[in-house]
Structures are given as C-alpha cells and as structure tokens.
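Slide 14.
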Amino acid sequence: MRKWIRFGTPFILIFILTSFRYNGSPELRVPKSLQVNDLKEVDLPQQKTILVPTFIVPPFVGSTFIGFKEALAFKESRGNYFVTNTFGYMGKYQFGKGTLDLIGVKDGKDGFLKNPALQEKAFRTNLSRNKWILRRDIKRFVGKRINGIEITESGILAAAHLAGAGNVKKYLRSYGDHDFEDGFGTTISYYLKKFAGYDLTGIDPIKNPTI
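Slide 15: predicted structure.
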C-alpha cells in the first residue's frame, strides 16, 4: 500500500495541476460601431495663426521707446493699423489728416492704412516734431508737479500726440488751468500721468521733419 502511494502520488498531482492550467486572458472585442475598416487621409492645418481673443491686454515691454509707442498705440487703437475711428483718425496711432500733411504723408487714407511701416515712420517723425516744438517746456517743467502729477518728457510728448503741442504748452504754462479734452473725454492730464516715465532720450528734436 505504501509503495502504491509513493509511486502514485506524483501522477495524481500532475493530473490536478493540469486540470487547473491557465488558459490566458479572455478575448477582447471592439464594438462594431467603433471598428475602422477604411483608412482615410486627413488634412491638417499648416502654418495657420490661431487667435484666441479671450481678453486683450496691453504689451509690457518696459520703459523704452518701444514700450512707450506700444503702450500709446494700445490706448489709441488697441494696436490696430487698419482702423479708423468715428472722428476720422486713422491707424495704429490714430493720426488726423492735418498732422499727416504736416509731416509729408501724401498716400491718402487707404494708402496710409495699408502701410504699417509708413505708420511707424509717421509716429517717430511726429514725435521728433513735437519734441522740437516743446523743447523749452520740457526743460522747464520736467520734474515739477501740476495738479499732483509729476511732469515727465514722455508724458508731455504723449499728451502732444493726443492734443497737439500747442494745447500742451497752454496746459503747462497755465499750470493745469487749460486742460484739453478730446471727443472721447480723454484729457492732457490723463496722458501726462498714464505715459510718465518712459525713456525717450533716443528721439531727437527736429524742426519741421518730413518723411
């Protein structure tokens, strides 16, 4: 009996183990509605600009000339080269026809709006012109306070872009009693404060500059 158990036990164990052998994972089936039978070519966008205008923020590029002009352009037109406002002011920096005539722009409204490079030249040229006209007032008033606002060169030149150099002279020399207001209610004092502290030493004052 013991002999039978000794020789029979291995066969019994083999039988038990083989009856419980692993048969692998169950077969996974993809629903027919999700099966892909034919391959199709798909056109992907290439070199396309995607704009997500969730909200608009002004550019922050420091206190340099570039920072000044971009901040001013954002206030004037949101930086749009191709816009004309309800009063007829044109482009990124909202130039009037009279100012463009003074600096030698003869392209007409459509030509001016379609030419961003010309608009940039016009802005710098007019800045040089205003800096010449206001050179004595810049020297006299920079560092002083008028109506609680510290007067800076960049504030003066920004206000001149808004109201013209003549109106800025009147404001400064009247110590704020003569405060110009444009058609949208924007004042010289607002521009003096908003655009203070930019470095415009690289802009030369030029008498009667033209493009």
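Speaker note: The radius of gyration is 37 Å.
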